[in-house]
Design goal:
By secondary structure, the protein is an alpha/beta fold. The protein is built from twelve helices and twelve strands. The protein folds into two domains: about 325 residues, TIM Barrel (Alpha-Beta Barrel); about 30 residues, no CATH class. About 30% of the residues lie in helices and about 20% in strands. Helix 2 crosses helix 3. The longest helix has 13 residues. The model has no long low-confidence stretch (mean pLDDT about 95).
Length: about 350
């Protein structure tokens, strides 16, 4: 049996089994498990060093999940879903939800309402999605998401990619997957050999903490990059996990050594049961401020808020403009020093 399949088979999905491995309050875990299931594979579980550490917080159920407030569908994805499991919010691109399964169930998941539920994907969902994309020539970019699409078999993934590549107006295909982080053994040479037949193909993954960068995740990213797949990373800003400038800087710099380009830092969504994870927006701005100028621009992602109610992603940046008029703009750099620059060419100033 392949290593990744063994890890999936041995995945912990019930509180009693978890209590045999970690010191947890099994009754509290059971209460939370009823609302949003537990799922963590042995590999990711092995990254935990102590109770409540940044890896623990991401995957071990916490009673705060059933005490905190929030919204079931904070991004109003269902309102922008013309056919089941396909979200068409932006003019030229769609998100295609093709899998309800993930290698681990992150406790802060935006799609808690669907992930882990086999009934969330009808049998003909892929065909309906492909049909919609085929009928809409404005769609040039398709994001295959879930759940995690790389939890599907190689054959199923290929059938979806092949279906998309028969649609002439689809130019770019993107995969959204936490597999390189949470189940890197799934990234096999055979998978990469298949994926590279469907270029241009991109993959955005989801590292949240430097300790998720291991020899195994490094190998997975190298296999994907060597197959010609550009890699990006989407981090979620999480209290007690990565809400620290030094931690975030280390993560972004290490990602570049894996050939993974930091793409987004997300402000945590207003999803039900995740209030204890959310930081202030000011904290996010402080972290971006601590990155800009203090490390390579390659290591500085966009800090975004996915606007509640389906407004889409809005980039938030520290404002470097001190003053601005017809004559000049006064700017503050990363060291807090002020610089003046003419606001229009000299010949236009008269």
């Amino acid at each position: 049996m392949e290593e990744w399949k063994r890890l999936v088979k041995e995945t912990i999905t019930n509180p009693e089994r978890l209590a045999q491995i970690l010191e947890v309050d099994v009754e509290s875990i059971k209460r939370v498990h009823k609302e949003f299931p537990l799922r963590v594979n042995p590999y990711y579980l092995s990254l935990i060093r102590e109770k409540g550490d940044p890896i623990w917080k991401q995957v071990i159920p916490d009673v705060q999940e059933i005490l905190s407030k929030g919204v079931e569908d904070p991004l109003a994805e269902e309102e922008d879903s013309p056919v089941p499991n396909l979200i068409h919010r932006y003019p030229d691109r769609v998100l295609f939800y093709v899998s309800y399964m993930c290698p681990v169930y992150c406790r802060f998941c935006t799609r808690k309402r669907k992930v882990g539920d086999p009934h969330s994907i009808p049998k003909n969902a892929v065909e309906m999605g492909l049909g919609y994309i085929r009928q809409h020539p404005e769609i040039r970019d398709v994001i295959i998401s879930g759940g995690d699409p790389l939890m599907l078999t190689d054959g199923k993934i290929e059938s979806i990619l092949c279906g998309l590549r028969t649609i002439e107006h689809v130019e770019i295909i993107r995969l959204g997957s936490r597999v390189p982080v949470a189940l890197p053994q799934r990234i096999t040479p055979e998978l990469c050999e298949m994926l590279k037949q469907y270029h241009p193909l991109y993959l955005n993954t989801h590292f949240n903490h430097p300790r998720e960068i291991t020899p195994e995740s490094k190998k997975a990213c190298e296999l994907l990059a060597n197959a010609g797949i550009p890699l990006g990373n989407q981090t979620v800003l999480l209290k007690g996990v990565n809400d620290d400038a030094a931690v975030m800087k280390e993560l972004m710099q290490k990602l570049l050594t894996l050939r993974v380009r930091p793409y987004y830092i997300y402000q945590a969504d207003l999803v039900m049961g995740t209030e204890h994870f959310r930081t202030s927006v000011q904290k996010g701005l402080e972290i971006i401020g601590a990155l800009r100028g203090h490390t390579s621009g390659l290591a500085v992602p966009h800090y975004v808020i996915d606007a509640p109610g389906g407004g889409g992603k809005i980039a938030i940046i520290p404002d470097p403009v001190v003053s601005f008029d017809d004559n000049e703009i006064v700017l503050e750099n990363y060291e807090g020093k002020m610089y003046r620059y003419p606001s229009c060419p000299a010949e236009q100033a008269f």
